[in-house]
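Q: Hi! First time doing this. I have a protein sequence and I read that you can turn it into a structure. Is that right? Here it is:
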Amino acid sequence: MSNTATKGIWKVISASSMGTMIEWYDFYIFGSLAVVISTKFFPSDNPTAAFLSTLATFAAGFVVRPFGALFFGRLGDIIGRKYTFMATLLLMGGSTFLIGCIPSYETIGFLAPLLVLILRLLQGLALGGEYGGAATYVAEHAPARQKGYWTSWIQTTATVGLFISLMVILATKNILSPEDFDSWGWRVPFWVSIVMIGISYLIRKNMDESPVFAKAKKEGTTSTNPLKESFGNRYNLKFVLLALFGATMGQGVVWYTGQFYAMSFMKTVMNINSSQVDELLGIALLFGTPFFIFFGWLSDKIGRKHIMMGGMLLAILFYRPIYKKMYNTTDLKHKTEIVEKTTTNTAVFKENQTITTISKTYTDGTTYTEKKTNFADQKESQSSVVININSNDEWTLIFLVFIQVLFVTMVYGPIAAFLVELFPTKIRYTSMSLPYHVGNGIFGGLLPAISTYFVTHAKAAGKDDFYLDGLWYPIIIASVCFVIGMVYIDNKNQTNHL
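A: Yes, that's right. Below is the predicted 3D structure, encoded as structure tokens:
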């Protein structure tokens, strides 16, 4: 590539990536704050049910992503890539900002979770149209035989968006007192997005349309009915189904296991301090993100198939050993309590509410705090546990999450190039968006809620290794996808439409 061409593609990459990263930030800030949100927008008398309801609302945004892919994909193939994902950017930003403005459940009752659900659905629709447009836009600017490398920069945006969401939350927590953050500070990360969206809109406004699409439009070869040509054509539908069941379905569950389920698992199953989890996950993501670029580049050299399938196979084989090691790392049964440092304090609030705080310290520096809340009119008490882990355990968990992020980079780094190469220009936006968002939105997005339910059910049944039951969902889905992908995907660039 010449210096001018390189400069041009970097301009495209930076403009596309920044907008996509901000949309992922907006989308994932909800998941990053799920534990806090469960106490704000849902009834507080049953914390477990409130958290599961929050995860279900989080998942709702994923479920509607395929509909966003169909709606905005059609627009993208008819009117162009640029204006379509400018619209998705504004829709996402507005919805995120408004979530931060909704009064709590205590103030407006059931209207609070209803409004959150509606805005969450709008977020899902917006993201359904964003990713396909950004990936297509970059791929149509990139030179031949370098699609994997250049589109892999778009692949980093989802993880970078999650990383920035964690950093904004940590910064807000450090600036505000715990009381202020719990009261109103948790809204700040939602409000910050409106500034980021404004900047990204101004950048995207000055972008040119994709040269490949502009040429097709000038020649009159764009599609008049992308939905019919994408899914009504049996030949093209075959590639849509192959993309879904042979690649994106497995990629989706590996992505959400390695990042969101890992975060949820450490916070709710292992009971680690939320700020510590955000920190260690942020470090693991920082170390792992460059591998998106590496595996995207490598896929240009050796093909997409074996890298993606290899990531799935490694995840299938190592998820259970990894999560068993994670759980045992902080399992208090393996630690020695300093009995003389154990304290129990009881305080009475509002006459009918008694809070008992039990604090324990262990020889390796781990601390344990349990708060039991008893109400005079209720037979059962509510209990919450927070464990602060020592630095050695923290680095162990960083390494174990980093390994999972490597699996993510293998399946996710090459997949944008893989998808755009499957479909012709005139229906590319529509055809690639649907399988991507069904695989990620349905199979991947439902993972935190389904896996958390499995763990909760297994724990209630008294299983010793209850914490591993949530992994059966991603393992089974990834296994089916691995078999289909190995049998039916050609390791070469499938149709060379680019």
